[in-house]
Design a protein that fits this description.
The structure is a single chain. The protein has 188 residues and is an alpha+beta fold. Helices cover 45% and strands 22% of the residues. The longest helix is centred in the N-terminal third of the chain and has 31 residues. The chain is elongated, with a radius of gyration of 24 Å. The chain starts with a helix and ends with a strand.
């Protein structure tokens, strides 16, 4: 039996308006006889929820990887708090000299550069003609102060497309700063 999408959406709306007693009276007519093959009555709701869970799962894995690095380098930061306060697409961890030691999958998605390409480079490879000298100087000075900060910089994707990148950089430390973590997202 084929259903038109608008009919399925109407059915969703109709069913959501029923009381529990009204629904129980008709549920045998709408539930499938084979419970292993349930028709999807509202694809958009399912897809949205599935996408959110997928992103949450990836971010959980990324956090675990960062926490493993924190254990390895004995960082004293409250990384749980840092993750809860900062929204991001890309994560980058550099050493004290700004050489990249780790990036997440979101970095590759946002920039077009592979993880393998980025490792042991400084983030300067993302800069280009429209990257402001003033912004680069501010970044450099803020990094020297080894205090958390936020900045917006024009970076370039692998295909040379410029984009505005909001960067929140937090020094990672044990007795002294040893690394930096950057929470990055593309902004308009």
């Amino acid at each position: 039996m084929k259903y038109h999408l608008s009919n399925m959406l109407c059915l969703d709306i109709y069913l959501s308006s029923l009381t529990n007693d009204e629904y129980k009276k008709i549920e045998h007519k709408i539930l499938p006889s084979n419970p292993k093959s349930v028709p999807l009555l509202s694809w958009d709701i399912y897809a949205e929820d599935y996408y959110k869970k997928l992103i949450e799962g990836k971010k959980t894995i990324e956090k675990k990887e960062v926490f493993q690095l924190a254990k390895k380098f004995n960082w004293a930061n409250d990384l749980s708090s840092d993750f809860s306060k900062n929204d991001y697409e890309a994560l980058i961890i550099t050493d004290i000299n700004q050489k990249i030691i780790w990036v997440n999958e979101g970095f590759s998605k946002m920039t077009g550069y592979s993880k393998k390409f980025a490792i042991n480079k400084t983030p300067k490879f993302l800069q280009g003609n429209n990257t402001s000298l003033e912004t680069k100087n501010r970044l450099r000075n803020k990094l020297l102060k080894q205090e958390p900060f936020k900045e917006i910089i024009v970076n370039y994707k692998k295909d040379k497309t410029p984009y505005h990148c909001e960067v929140k950089i937090i020094p990672l430390y044990n007795k002294q700063t040893t690394h930096f973590i950057a929470f990055e997202k593309q902004v308009i």
